[in-house]
Design brief:
Shape: globular
CATH architecture of the largest domain: 3-Layer(aba) Sandwich
Number of helices: 19
Distance between the termini: 45 Å
Strand content: 15-25%
Structural class: alpha+beta
Strand order of the largest sheet: 1-6-7-9-8
Number of strands: 26
Radius of gyration: 25 Å
Largest sheet: 5 strands, antiparallel
């Protein structure tokens, strides 16, 4: 299974989605804008103006050592240092080099604290936000970070030379206006509580990145191994053949004393080694070639993450709780294909997945079934629509399936009694017949006689392959007369095919978000359905969904956001665009015993970022 969603999501999650959020401070209808150190989307920031550090860091963590890690995703090589463009494969860890105007904390869902900016002022009408830059902020080449650099970054990312998702993410930001060398204002097309989030989360890089000595500029979409000029804590020290890369902590890093940076980025160096497949990656860890492994495969965790180094205590296995929304993982259907146009067909395919069998036979009962796009959060729709949801759904009734107004969908069960796979397949057969598919001449066929045949596209994943799951799914589909073929291709090739929507069905996990917003427009909006490289893999194109998405991004209160997200979840789940998979409420991490981590765990975090940003090497015993 490929654990990324698409271009922009996988490349700016670290910088943008974990960044600022707006709120009651500054967005209230006061008579004048005023500057603050932090803003919260709902309620108040957790940390006061004089806070020294976040609770989940160790402010006295020792510095030094080289952290060695393996591929953080399925990429086995890289061919560029620019994470913001569509073509090519970026090196892992480039997020260490870029910072934004604001940054979030890992124990709040929607609060922004100044990073490059030391003051944030939201206009009384909510149609603009002004950021004042910290005069100490410096790029890696020693130049000060200026408002012109911020404007350049914003305009470059919105241009056709950047990945197309940025134009979606920042589409409601009308312009960036330089007030003075350290002050920039972003004007918005509409007033929503998310706009300062997006402005504050823009990755900032120097105007000199890609500049030749003669003053000419390399086009942004052609930047390859030109080292970025960013303001982050690390620099690229060396790399080799697109398979290894080492970052060294910038000895002149400007942000060390900022409260949002105290206790973070404690390693002198971070080195990535990219292994050819999942098996080689796992065996290399057991051989001691790198320091930490985030295990996403239940079978590996139980059966393969074992050996003499685990027995001796040199390597430690531990499950860390997390409160992230788990995102949507599943088999995504491409409804641009005529085969999947009919919702009855899509529901029938959903009925053919036997999760209980998979969990028992393949996953050692470590997972729960995913039954929402916002599972494991209060944003998940349940039961029948509330009054708030109905206020959004009722005007769209003529465009929606009547089932949307009933009980929320439940994923099919097979554990007896009274459930069974046979009963689910009988129901699926009737749905397929209603959609014009009947069994004859040895296969399920439509009125033209065409057999029902499709392909699941997956990347070559070694130990994390979806092949056993797909094989079990295909066996069940065969009982309906459907032929399901499973095909694996290299990660780089699958990315190109997904960007071009050249697939029938694919296995994907959407990154989770704690406060849904503009990224949902990219994932499910009608406009993005026709934009190659967009996050809208399934090709959802519905005016009703577009209307609900508008309610999501324009929600003024937490209650309004919950109602809008519930409505969105309800409509999407009743659309059966995905055969949902499963999720876990813990991070499974194996690590070398020389690593230390804070005693207070964050709430909302990815394990990889937590390890690189807040862990450290223990001092050697004397």
């Amino acid at each position: 299974m490929t654990t990324r969603i698409t271009t922009a999501s996988r490349r700016i999650t670290r910088v943008l989605l974990a960044s600022a959020s707006i709120g009651s401070i500054g967005l209230g209808l006061s008579h004048a804008a005023f500057a603050v150190y932090a803003i919260a989307q709902y309620g108040e920031p957790k940390y006061p103006p004089d806070f020294r550090h976040f609770d989940y860091v160790n402010p006295d963590a020792p510095r030094g050592g080289t952290l060695v890690l393996a591929n953080p995703n399925r990429l086995t090589s890289f061919d560029k240092f620019n994470p913001f463009t569509l073509r090519g494969n970026p090196a892992p860890g480039l997020g260490f080099m870029f910072e934004s105007l604001t940054t979030g904390s890992l124990d709040e869902v929607a609060t922004a604290y100044g990073l490059l900016a030391d003051d944030i002022a939201i206009a009384p009408d909510g149609l603009s936000t002004t950021f004042h830059l910290n005069p100490k902020a410096r790029f890696s080449n020693g130049d000060p970070v200026t408002a012109e650099d911020v404007k350049f970054s914003f305009e470059t990312l919105k241009s056709p030379k950047a990945a197309p998702q940025y134009a979606v993410y920042f589409g409601q930001i009308a312009r960036a206006v330089v007030i003075d060398p350290l002050t920039i204002r972003f004007d918005f097309k509409q007033r929503t509580r998310e706009m300062p989030l997006l402005a504050g989360g823009i990755p900032v890089f120097s105007r000199k990145w890609g500049m030749n000595p003669d003053g000419t500029r390399i086009p942004f979409d052609q930047l390859a191994f030109q080292k970025p000029i960013g303001s982050g804590p690390y620099l690229i020290e060396q790399y080799d053949n697109g398979r290894t890369i080492t970052y060294r902590r910038n000895p002149s890093y400007w942000g060390d004393k900022l409260p949002v940076r105290v206790g973070t980025y404690n390693y002198e160096r971070i080195n990535y080694k990219l292994y050819s497949d999942g098996v080689a990656r796992l065996e290399a860890f057991k051989a001691g070639e790198y320091d930490a492994l985030v295990e996403n495969v239940a079978r590996n965790w139980v059966r393969r993450d074992i050996g003499k180094r685990f027995d001796s205590g040199e390597l430690i296995k531990r499950e860390f709780p997390q409160h992230n929304g788990s995102g949507m993982q599943g088999f995504f259907m491409n409804v641009r294909r005529p085969l999947f146009k009919d919702v009855r067909v899509r529901q029938a395919l959903d009925l053919a997945l036997d999760f209980e069998w998979l969990n028992r036979q393949l996953f050692f009962n470590q997972y729960k079934r995913t039954d929402s796009f916002f599972v494991n959060t209060d944003l998940q729709a349940k039961g029948t629509p509330s009054e708030g949801e109905l206020a959004l759904l009722a005007p769209l009734r003529s465009q929606l399936d009547p089932s949307v107004f009933g009980e929320m969908t439940q994923q099919p069960r097979t554990a007896p009694p009274p459930n069974s796979l046979r009963a689910n397949l009988i129901k699926a057969r009737q749905l397929l017949a209603d959609a014009g598919w009947t069994y004859r001449d040895g296969a399920l066929r439509n009125a033209k006689g065409d057999p029902f045949v499709f392909e699941i596209l997956d990347d070559t994943g070694g130990g994390a392959s979806m092949e056993p799951v797909a094989a079990a799914f295909a066996r069940n589909l065969q009982k309906l007369g459907i032929t399901c073929n499973f095909r694996t291709v290299d990660y780089a090739l699958i990315q190109k095919r997904l960007d071009a929507f050249d697939f029938d069905m694919t296995s994907v996990r959407m990154p989770d978000v704690q406060v849904p917003g503009t990224e949902q427009v990219s994932r499910f909006g009608s406009k993005s359905a026709d934009e190659q490289g967009s996050d809208n893999l399934s090709g959802v194109k519905s005016p009703a969904v577009d209307a609900i998405l508008q309610a999501v991004v324009s929600a003024e209160t937490r209650e309004q956001l919950v109602d809008a997200t519930h409505a969105l979840d309800r409509v999407l789940m009743h659309g059966y665009y995905v055969v949902p998979h499963w999720y876990s409420a813990t991070h499974r991490v194996a690590y070398r015993n020389t690593l230390g981590f804070p005693s207070t765990l964050p709430l909302y975090y990815t394990a990889e970022d937590w390890i690189t940003s807040t862990w450290w090497f223990k001092p050697a015993a004397k």
